[in-house]
Amino acid sequence: MAAVTSTPVDLSAAFVMAPTVLGDWLVILPPALMITAGALLMMVRHRMHLHVRIAIPALLLLVLVDAALLFKVATQGPVTMMMGRWLPPFGIAFTVDLFGALMNLVAGTVAFAAGIAALKDINDSGRRYGFFPFLMLLMAGVSGAFLTGDIFNLYVWFEVLLISSFGLLILGSEREQIDGAMKYAVLNLIGTTLFLISVGYLYAIFGTLNMADIALKAREIEGAPLMTLSALFILAFSMKAAAFPVNFWLPASYHTPRITVSALFGGLLTKVGIYALMRVMVMLFPLQREELSLVIGLLAALTLIIAALGMLAQDDMRRMAGYAVIVGIGNMLAGIAVGTVAGISGALLYALHSILAMTALYLVIGRAAALTGTFSLTAAGGIYRVAPGFAFASLALFLAVAGLPPFSGLWPKIMLVKASLDIGAWWLAGTILLSGFLTTVALGRIFLLAYWRPQTKAEGRGEAGETLAQDRQTLWPLYGLIAIITLFGLLPEGPLGLSQLAAEGLLQPVSYIQSVFPAGGAQ
Amino acid sequence: MEFVLACLVGAFFAAAIYLLLSRHTVRMLLGIAILGNAVNLLIFTGGRLTREVPPIIGSGLDTLTAGAANPLPQALILTAIVISFSFFAFLLVLTYRAFQELGTDDTDEMRLAEPKNDPLPPAGY
User: Fold this and answer.
1) Which positions ≥6 away from A473 have C-beta within 8 Å?
2) Cβ distance A482 to A401 under 8 Å?
3) Strand-pair partners of A148
4) Cβ contacts of B120 on chain A, cutoff 8 Å
5) Does residue B94 belong to the interface with chain A, where contact is any CB pair within 8 Å?
6) Torsion angle, CA of B28/B33/B39/B42, rounded to 10 degrees?
7) pLDDT digits (tens, 9 = 90+) for B67-102
8) A251/B121 Cβ within 8 A
């Protein structure tokens, strides 16, 4: 190892000597852009008229950058950028494959929609508390998690998004929010600590943190306690994704903040957990996933049933939406349990659909509550008469969430059911369908009671009539999301093909590894 | 040496989990603080303990000598300490506010967001 040389040190042996191609900077741009915008917003935090002017263009830029990144990855394959020019596996790598780029683009779109919705929903006091800086940092964490190729770095991005989500959750400091935040904060902190424990063991076993390097070594290593490690990772990420039986923090907290914040959380946070679970269990430890597939399948089935029953039992529409988020997690877990190309691409497609649909669902519920003056199903009523256009848009969204044609929920569900039947897991397919049926009943009940039923109380009506006129132009993020969901349902070929390619790339990470180690292996 | 530290990590985890099982928020906070330290010790031990040779490249050498201590776990721990410290500070304030607003430190009595007798949705019109 030790070598004494008289010649000058050859730096090319330790560093990436070629300058980074201009296009490769795209890889780091989404988190860098969001952190910069967040810092800028902190500097002008007392000048609130500037917040919107900085935040909305920054979010629009994020969507454009994410789209450019997806285009680049779709045409060229996975792209890697090394921090500090250290050669892999020593430096921290940002590696983007199709899977990460797809999630990243959809997450950026949702954040943009939520930013627009916040113009109306978050008042001056919310902005003074820092809604927009927190939103920027949350998106830095989310896109960093989707783009990084280093597992410790993934942990750091998890913490970035977690601490900003704390800030967003207690925005306003209502008593309810503090109660919800207490449970959310403690349980999520324990979840990420479990993730850190797993990373510590992983480093002890492999001596590396680079995901491509781990993927290479995990297929050859023998005698290492990889099953224990995988079980720990599954527990940690299930906790982040709110899978049964570690899901109780979600319905306890997601209904307490402002509705735009709930929409962001419902769309993004749990899916980051699912993303990490797929990245680790499908790409890094495929053999262990195979061994544990029955456990994951049982977890998926229980999550599907318990969450659907939870939906049926709620009177508060926001809490019902919280359980709807968990139903989606069950569907994605089912795809991971199946583990074939069809299963993984079904799970990925469901994740994309769920990010869009859950954000839209919370926004619809917020709008419905603004029209009727209540979140309670017992008291709400008469929306169809007041706002028929909005009622039709809501119905489209409910059908999409329940997985009925012709909207976006249908295709991933068909893929998941078919994939489970193909490997003979008829019980899993049956559970997916049963849970879909219960979801349909629960959402149908919202439509029946809050939309079709005549107005039950006079209260809240005057306020609703007044907000109706000025709300119309701020409804377009909601209609935009529903339009994307409808398009996704009517023209599924594009997303389907991309998700299939992404799933193949995840199951056979040859091109991912090659993008990190161009020479074809660690030196 | 590894054996002693492994036992210590186990003791830390046991104490942390015992405290986290409490219903009182202050004890849970202490549990979280100990849990963070348990993980840091775990990473430290996971990086293998070699004390003899410091990880410094001597003059005239290109690489570390064999058996040098591993500097990476310390970088990881430093990151984890900063993160867990900031979270702990946030949780301290949150717990204090929760005690002020809700008037209790017993998590079983914090039922504001999820009231005990939540009404069921109507079964019909």
Assistant:
1) none
2) no
3) A94
4) 313, 315
5) yes
6) -110
7) 778 888 889 999 999 999 999 999 999 999 999 988
8) no
Residue A81 carries which DSSP code? E
Chain A nearest CA to B7, separation (Å): 15
The neighbouring-strand residues paired with B106 are: B24
Interface confidence (ipTM) of the complex: 0.93
The DSSP line for A238-269 is HHHHT-TTS-THHHHHTTSS-HHHHHHHHHHH
Counting DSSP H helices and E strands in chain B, the numbers are: 3, 0
Q: How far is CA A290 from CA A156, A286, A295, A438, A507, in A?
A: 28, 6, 10, 30, 12
Distance CA A311, CA A446 (A): 11
- CB pair distance less than 8 Å for A180 and B113: yes
Cα gap A268→A171, rounded to integer Å: 18
Pair type for strands A79-82 and A93-96: antiparallel
Residues of chain A with Cβ-Cβ distance to B24 below 8 Å are none
B120:A315 CB<8 A: yes
Name the token pair of A468: 């109706």
DSSP-based three-state secondary structure for A88: coil
User: Which chain A residues contact residue B91 at CB under 8 A?
Assistant: 185-186, 189
Give A377-423 pLDDT, tens digit per residue: 888 888 888 888 899 999 999 999 998 888 888 999 999 999 999 99
Q: Which of A179, A197, A203 sits opposite B47 (nearest CB)?
A: A203
